[in-house]
Design brief:
single chain, 4-stranded antiparallel β-sheet, alpha+beta
Length: 157
């Protein structure tokens, strides 16, 4: 009887040690191997949680984008974006780079058919624009100075 109790205790201790060791390895692996696909917006959001009152909002000029439908008719989309900056210096850099941002936005949306853009939800349009901006800025080795992008106006005609 003593052998069974002793064997059970040794088994339980070994089970706890092996499980704890595996958990420790997984936890340390997750800490040192972060996802490689952090966008600047997501990276900054996770690095520091800022209060809303610290944000600086930079409104870009409204863009009028011509979209063609399946029948070849032209439709227009009015889009106004606001970029959220971390500092006054970043907001000035956003304003200086505004033509670049406008160009990326225009080329991204003008290549899509009217019916497709109309079917998108606003969150999908935002995601499309964030992806395009991050990709193009990375190609140009230009850091993104914004922490978030807000769609402040969207009108279709």
């Amino acid at each position: 009887m003593k052998k069974i109790v002793l064997a059970s205790l040794v088994g339980a201790v070994l089970f706890i040690m092996v499980g704890g060791g595996a958990a420790w390895i997984v936890f340390n692996y997750m800490q040192t191997h972060k996802p490689a696909v952090d966008t600047p917006v997501e990276k900054r959001a996770t690095e520091k949680k800022k209060k809303h009152e610290d944000d600086i909002f930079v409104s870009l000029k409204e863009s009028v984008i011509t979209l063609s439908d399946a029948a070849g008719e032209d439709h227009y989309m009015l889009l106004a974006l606001t970029m959220v900056a971390e500092s006054e210096e970043a907001s000035k850099k956003i304003l200086a780079d505004e033509p670049l941002y406008q160009s990326i936005i225009l080329t991204t949306l003008a290549d899509i058919k009217y019916e497709q853009v109309r079917a998108f939800k606003i969150s999908e349009i935002k995601s499309l624009l964030v992806t395009a901006l991050n990709r193009e800025l990375k190609k140009r080795a230009t850091p993104g100075r914004y922490t978030d992008i807000l769609i402040s106006k969207l009108v279709f005609q």
